[in-house]
Task: structure prediction
Amino acid sequence: MNAQTPSPLSYNGHKIADKGDDLCLTDMWKACGSPANKEPFNWVRFDGRNFIAAVGLAHNLSHTQVIKTKKGKGGATFAHWQAGMAYAQYLDHDFHMWCNTAAREKMEGKVASGIPADVLELIRRTDGIAKMLAHKVTEIEKAMPLIAGQMAETLITAKLAERNLLLRHGVTAKRIWDDFNLTPRLRGSTVWFGNRLAEMGCCIDGGLKADRGNSAVRLFDPDKARICMKNGLLNTALSYAAERQGQGKLNLKG
Result:
């Protein structure tokens, strides 16, 4: 860590662990009073997904290198400190401002030299916008940091696009199945189809999934899937659907 600030991080009496370039998101969540629906895993899957991808692209890190989760008793989620700063903004305004002094002073010495200077400046500017807005008290003004964050996320995505870097949004196997007008309501078809897409390398990098009720479904790259469908997967799926429908008719007659 930064030799100038060797003392451990602590907020409201809660210690926040750090390892190398990483901050413990679980400790940050607890330090803010464990707010409902703002657990690290929720932020990683939804609100923080694009920012995490941007940090990974800027530092040439995979998703599992930016976000590190230890499951089981005593488990915790760690994240690259720049992703941790974004999570602090998501949790609480006062906590985010504290992180901009105490946490940033401790972690900033670890900034990788490879991150583009303009992208780093854009991230810092986002933090500044949130700090200016944090003191507001009306309901409309309370919503502004979120709006500012969304605007900054769009700007970061555009800046990455200038370097021919792409953030992909995945779709489910059912969405692809329906887009190609394949037989609807065929039991088990999307599981079978998803397995075929995975075998052909169409999964979104990092193994991202989407929540559906109490379960999670795989996400696939729509462009890769479209290519695979043109290269034979569509015919395979049509044959599979026809065979399944034929089996159903035989069962009815029996």
User: Anything to note?
Assistant: Residues 10-109 form one domain. The first helix runs from residue 25 to 31. Confidence is low (pLDDT under 50) at residues 1-6, 110-114.
